[in-house]
Recover the amino acids of this structure.
């Protein structure tokens, strides 16, 4: 699941070097995500993992996203 998520992160932020990302990387501060990139990542996660966001989620780190996916992914 981690590798699949890294691919989605790379797709949302094509100029970022995803090899520098780890579970403790902060999406905004460390990886440079802005609101548009976060929305693109969320939409890609819906497609890739079969999750549906009922309400806005506050993801700060890659680990936050992984934890959410582990609890909610259907694919």
């Amino acid at each position: 699941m981690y590798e699949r998520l890294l691919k989605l992160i790379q797709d949302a932020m094509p100029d970022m070097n995803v090899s520098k990302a780890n579970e403790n990387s902060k999406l905004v501060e460390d990886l440079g995500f802005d609101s548009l990139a976060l929305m693109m990542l969320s939409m890609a996660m819906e497609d890739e993992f079969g999750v549906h966001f009922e309400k806005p989620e506050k993801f700060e780190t890659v680990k936050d996203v992984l934890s959410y996916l582990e609890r909610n992914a259907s694919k």
User: Anything to note?
Assistant: The CA atoms of residues 15 and 42 lie 18 Å apart. The mean pLDDT is 92. The domain at 2-12+24-72 is CATH 1.10.1200.10 (Non-ribosomal Peptide Synthetase Peptidyl Carrier Protein; Chain A).
